Amino acid sequence: MMLTDTEINVAGFRALVAALGDVQAEKFIALIQREPFDYTRWQRTVWPDKSIEEISQAAMTHRPTEGRN
Description:
4 helices
């Protein structure tokens, strides 16, 4: 099931608040909006010691199983 943009926004904000708390989540959003951000360049530096296959496998272990066929 694909999430709508609104559902992604809500889930993302809830995750930020859960991880950082209200004030720090707001600060994070303000920082992201202020600074230019190149997602592709950032992604290349997140897990430099992992292969694509390792990253994909890790992502699959966190993927919800509900709604799968």
